[in-house]
């Protein structure tokens, strides 16, 4: 698949305080959803969307992410020596090789916000629009970024954000779109975006989920962006500045989003996967989360 969106940025420098103490030594992006770390889902999604270059904006204390993402020849050799060649091949398949894969790690030393994290990737992006994936937002089912990249070609807007309806009391947790009401298919036309508004001032309940396809002018807007909500440089604010110039659209993705930045969201994602994998049906039955197949028959 040839994609007009060649670069994906993964902001992974955050401290993950909501998951302490689990994230004291383990980056939150490496927390497993059963057996696959969150970051791997986001990488797989970007690959499915035809992304050529992946840029990880990380933090020096989170070097384990790089160890997960990159090939480990020593581990593979050890596995082969122990008679596990298939496991070695599987690991190689799922990892990046520095010689052949286009992967960049750059550091965000200070927690200055999501917008600042994206700006840290500026010197490494390929020409054209860029994708941003927040690995905390796990989207299962149809690959969200691939859908967005396909829709982006038809879309008149330069900035496109994944969007979903939330309850009014939850607007303060998300970027919220101001929609113009004219909607076509999965596309939502928007003329504004605001970071984490309280319900009384939120322009809608159409919330931004962590997948973005952004016009390259986002970097100039980020470079000139003052701190916003929470004293951080917000990606939402820089998107907002570009609306008059490049336009903005929301995209109603087909998959199901899990907020794996929260413990309840992580549990929901694990239960979803367990429900769809017969290997875990006994466990679900033991906990009354599934009717036993004998009873159902
Ligand atoms: C970030 C963005 C927010 C977006 C959310 C999606 O917030 O700033 O606009 O709606 O991701 O998960 P965070 O959850 O990092 O506070």
Write the SSE topology.
Layout: E1 7-11, E2 32-33, E3 36-37, H1 38-48, E4 53-58, H2 63-69, H3 73-81, H4 85-94, E5 102-107, H5 114-120, E6 130-133, E7 137-140, H6 144-154, E8 159-165, E9 175-184, E10 187-195, E11 206-214, H7 218-223, H8 235-246, E12 248-252, E13 256-259, H9 263-275, H10 281-286, H11 293-296
Parallel strand pairs: 1-4, 1-6, 4-5, 8-12
Antiparallel strand pairs: 2-3, 6-11, 7-13, 8-11, 9-10, 10-12
Helix pairs in contact: 3-4, 5-8
The structure holds 1-O-phosphono-alpha-D-glucopyranose.
In terms of per-residue confidence, which ranges show pLDDT below 50 for 5 or more consecutive residues?
Answer: none
Anisotropy-based shape: globular
The count of β-strands is: 13
Helix and strand run? EEEHEHHHEHEEHEEEEHHEEHHH
Total helices: the number is 11
CATH topology of the largest domain: Spore Coat Polysaccharide Biosynthesis Protein SpsA, Chain A
Overall description:
The protein has two domains: 7-261, Spore Coat Polysaccharide Biosynthesis Protein SpsA, Chain A (Alpha-Beta Complex); 262-297, no CATH class. It is 32% helix and 25% strand. It has 297 residues and is an alpha/beta fold. A hairpin with a 2-residue loop joins strand 9 (175-184) and strand 10 (187-195). A nine-stranded mixed β-sheet has the order 5-4-1-6-11-8-12-10-9, sandwiched between helices. It has helices at 38-48, 63-69, 73-81, 85-94, 114-120, 144-154, 218-223, 235-246, 263-275, 281-286, 293-296; strands at residues 7-11, 32-33, 36-37, 53-58, 102-107, 130-133, 137-140, 159-165, 175-184, 187-195, 206-214, 248-252, 256-259. The structure holds 1-O-phosphono-alpha-D-glucopyranose. 1-O-phosphono-alpha-D-glucopyranose (G1P) binds next to strand 11 and helix 8.
